[in-house]
Task: inverse folding
């Protein structure tokens, strides 16, 4: 059982790093009521609510131009969390850069 907890904690750290890297691609992202909130994002990270943090990052493209790298980081995070529907959305976004 302890081995599983170590693996889970390692996974959480990996996902957190991916989400923070995606956020870090934007120096000072624009936001709106329906878009990204830095405060909410950091609160979700602090409380290990990584799915909610991922959702919050999805608000960045509403007011900011994104890059393929942004979507690739979100895709990796979604795959780590086994969020198949999100992964499909992010794959579509990535394909728009081809």
Result:
């Amino acid at each position: 059982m302890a081995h599983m907890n170590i693996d889970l904690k390692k996974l959480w750290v990996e996902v957190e790093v991916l989400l923070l890297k995606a956020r870090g691609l934007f120096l000072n992202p624009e936001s709106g009521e329906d878009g990204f909130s830095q405060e909410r994002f950091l609160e979700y990270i602090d409380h290990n609510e990584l799915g909610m943090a991922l959702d919050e990052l999805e608000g960045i493209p509403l007011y900011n131009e994104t890059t393929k790298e942004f979507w690739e980081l979100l895709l990796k995070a979604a795959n780590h969390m086994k969020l198949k529907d999100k992964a499909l959305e992010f794959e579509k976004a990535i394909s728009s850069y081809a």
About this structure: The CA atoms of residues 15 and 28 lie 22 Å apart. Residues 2-25+32-95 form one domain.
